[in-house]
Amino acid sequence: MSRTDRGSRVIAAPAETVYRALLDREALESWLPPGGMRGRIERWDPRPGGGFRMVLTYLDPTDSPGKTSGATDVVEVAFAALVPGERVVQRAEFASDDPAYAGTMTMTWDLTRAGAGTTEVTVTATDVPPGIDRAAHEAGIASSLAHLASYLEVTEFKG
Q1: pTM, entire model
Q2: Which end of the chain is more exposed for a tag (fewer CB within 10 A), N or C?
Q3: Could you tell me the fold of the domain covering 4-33+79-155?
Q4: Does an H or E element contain 102, and which?
């Protein structure tokens, strides 16, 4: 049976600014990795049908073995839909020999204006591979959203 995980956060930035941060390589490398990880994008093509390859490295892999290797998660992401200021839909596949991480997970980033200069960002992950722990995944989504909020507030991102 398919599984859906979610997270949401109101961010003090207009939807257009948040959208640009979802499609900027340097921004993604900075804010997307959840706490305890760092990320590096190896391939980048920000258009519908394009995508990226990200290598996420655990800062301390002792209690969090990676999906691809002992210390890394490698994920291939395709942009399925890009609706400026409103939505980014990604299809993500982990590079792993473990069948528990097989399959394509869809990550939908919905942006809703929440008030003057603020945006509610809702992330919905569908078809989550069974090897991904639900609590850890939802905590990771929340962490990425917190990093996005901090990134936009601290950097005054213009994209």
Answers
A1: 0.92
A2: N
A3: Alpha-D-Glucose-1,6-Bisphosphate; Chain A, domain 4 (3.30.530)
A4: none
